[in-house]
Design brief:
- By secondary structure, this protein is an alpha/beta fold.
- It is about 35% helix and about 20% strand.
- Strand 9 (about 195-200), helix 9 (about 205-215) and strand 10 form a beta-alpha-beta unit.
- The termini are far apart.
Length: about 250
């Protein structure tokens, strides 16, 4: 019975969107452009493109599984303050974005955003950044493109790896519709990879992210934030130093 619930309601467990009215007006401290991408006939993706005054490049940011751009826009301003442009999209059903969710759809929309940036930036100016849920999409793009760098904050080995941790009594691999096999994507990436994970993460277990560092990838740097949990790494000096080093 519980296994059936897990199968049919897994999207309710994985995705926690907060809708926004289409006329909602974003307000941020940095200059930005609001965009709408018609990635498919039945999908419209809302995105924000922040512009730094003295840009060193652009970060394509993929956010976590809760909220919308009114929150994530503020979070990504951290990088605008470090002189980087930022493009961040809301996933389907989040904020003002519309369309049906699926793993293929999320990867498709992510690729659309990357291709959009390629019209304005060279690949050696594009940094991929994934946080939590978004790490799977960022890793996927790194496996098919050649960005300057890939940064993953609180990533998972795969969605099934996290599900096994939460529901060890069920055959989650056969129940899950979403896979996001980060462990398959990273070996295909040609760019430097930085992973940052907190030891007290109760959402994506530290050991799930740590397993990625055990893959045979020469240009992968795993950074442990002692005492960090899932949502507060930015408060730690270890995280701040790592980001400053990667984005200097």
């Amino acid at each position: 019975m519980i296994g059936s619930v897990l199968y049919f309601f897994q999207e309710k467990l994985m995705f926690l969107p907060t809708p926004l009215e289409q006329d909602y007006q974003y307000q941020f401290d940095h200059s930005f452009e609001e965009l709408f991408f018609e990635t498919e006939a039945d999908a419209k993706i809302n995105a924000l493109h922040f512009k730094a005054e003295n840009s060193k490049g652009v970060i394509l940011y993929f956010h976590g599984n809760a909220g919308n751009l009114s929150r994530w826009g503020e979070i990504t301003e951290y990088f605008v303050g470090m002189d980087y442009d930022v493009l961040v999209m809301d996933y389907r059903t989040y904020g003002k974005s519309t369309g049906k969710l699926s793993e293929a759809a999320l990867n498709h929309d992510a690729q659309y955003c990357y291709d959009y940036l390629l019209k304005q930036y060279s690949e050696n100016e594009i940094i991929l950044y994934g946080r939590s849920l978004g790490t799977g999409m960022a890793a996927y793009l790194a496996s098919i493109y050649n960005p300057k760098e890939l940064i993953l904050e609180t990533p998972y080995f795969s969605i099934s790896d996290v599900a096994k941790h939460r529901f060890p009594m069920f055959p989650v691999e056969t129940l899950l519709k979403y896979k996001f096999p980060t462990f398959e994507y990273l070996p295909k990436a040609t760019c430097p990879i930085t992973i940052i994970h907190g030891t007290e993460d109760s959402v994506v277990p530290f050991k799930s992210g740590k397993k990625l560092s055990e893959l045979a990838i020469e240009r992968l740097n795993f950074i442990t934030v002692e005492g960090g949990n899932h949502n507060n790494l930015v408060e730690f000096e270890t995280y701040q130093k790592a980001i400053q080093e990667r984005l200097k």
